[in-house]
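Weekly sync, protein design subgroup
Attendees: M.S., D.O., the rotation student, P.L. (late)

Item 1: inverse folding check
M.S. brought a backbone from last month's batch and wanted to see whether the design step gives back something sensible before we order anything. D.O. pointed out we never logged the input encoding, so this time it goes straight into the notes. Structure tokens as presented (333 positions):
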């Protein structure tokens, strides 16, 4: 039996519609070397968006301080924090034995951890590699031996850190902090795990707050997921999370931020089944465009107080050749 023209037309429309939807959800791919290198900051740059940290940024941020109220944006470090994979946080106390009257003693600790990748932390460009290359097309060979071609493994990205792109090169940061409260936009305490934050979500949240992004901002996205950070069942925090998707990432890059952070482990949505690459936002920000990511921010109080514009202050640990830094940032208004 022949199918009538209206039925055939409807089938065509449905098939075409699904095809277009599939095209809209295509997997993001890493740009070629020719497309992404050299960096807009120059072929020898290792700092990326840190180049935006100028005195005028600090002065602009200082003008936002009116009440002196300080918001703590970093979680406490302890063995109870949520850790991805084989990461660890072990603290061993070296306690004083001087307890007799009239004697002085002292205590200290040994901490065994991935100091650049636990707790509230900043990702540096040495953290991510794709196809044997890092930010600004710096090769794995350069990251192993530096420009001098040394063969001593103590300086070959092993015992003494990477010769390039280390976290010590990131400047101390004081800039305008902008909270984008997507959970508030959706009128929920917490976005569900796996929720893909879109560029439209970000724009609508900013419009609701009557705030616009500016070059050099520290962008903080509240999903509400940080409420799970301290729960005993760490899988609730780590197994999945809401986060930005590809179009939101590309939109944020166009705003020229100094950094983007969230109250989740990874900034980007997890899981993200339509993407072939694991953690594509990490590749986009850290490898392609050289923009810092901040993970596990404590944003609940900032959102509750509707502190949408603040002075964001952050000092990374100067770990030579490090892939990132545990941080204790603050926001002041």
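Designed sequence read out in the meeting:
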């Amino acid at each position: 039996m022949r199918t009538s023209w209206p039925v055939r037309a409807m089938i065509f429309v449905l098939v075409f519609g699904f095809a277009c939807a599939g095209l809209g959800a295509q997997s993001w791919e890493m740009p070629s070397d020719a497309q992404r290198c050299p960096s807009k900051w120059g072929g020898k740059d290792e700092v990326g968006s840190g180049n935006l940290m100028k005195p005028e940024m600090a002065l602009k941020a200082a003008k936002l301080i009116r009440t002196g109220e300080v918001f703590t944006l970093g979680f406490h470090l302890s063995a109870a924090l949520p850790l991805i994979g084989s990461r660890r946080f072990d603290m061993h106390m070296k306690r004083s034995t001087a307890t007799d009257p009239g004697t002085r003693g002292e205590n200290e600790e040994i901490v065994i951890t991935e100091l650049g990748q636990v707790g509230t932390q900043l990702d540096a460009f040495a953290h991510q590699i794709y196809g044997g290359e890092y930010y600004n097309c710096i090769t794995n060979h350069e990251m192993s031996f530096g420009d001098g071609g040394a063969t001593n493994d103590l300086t070959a990205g092993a015992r003494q850190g990477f010769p390039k792109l280390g976290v010590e090169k990131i400047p101390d940061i004081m800039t305008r902090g902008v909270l984008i409260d997507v959970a508030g936009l959706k009128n929920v305490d917490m976005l569900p795990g796996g929720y893909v934050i879109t560029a439209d979500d970000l724009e609508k949240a900013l419009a609701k707050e009557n705030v616009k992004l500016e070059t050099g901002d520290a962008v903080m996205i509240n999903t509400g997921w940080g409420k799970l950070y301290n729960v005993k069942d760490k899988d609730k925090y780590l197994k999945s999370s809401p986060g930005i998707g590809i179009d939101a990432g590309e939109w944020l890059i166009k705003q020229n931020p100094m950094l983007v952070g969230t109250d989740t482990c990874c900034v980007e949505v997890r899981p993200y089944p339509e993407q072939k690459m694991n953690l594509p936002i990490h590749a986009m920000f850290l490898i392609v465009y050289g923009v810092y990511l901040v993970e596990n921010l404590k944003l609940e109080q900032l959102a509750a107080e509707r502190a949408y514009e603040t002075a964001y202050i952050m000092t990374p640990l100067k770990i030579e050749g490090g892939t990132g830094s545990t941080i204790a940032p603050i926001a002041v208004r």
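Discussion: The chain is about 25% helix and 15% strand. Residues 1-24 have pLDDT under 50 and may be disordered.
Action: P.L. to compare against the previous round before Friday.
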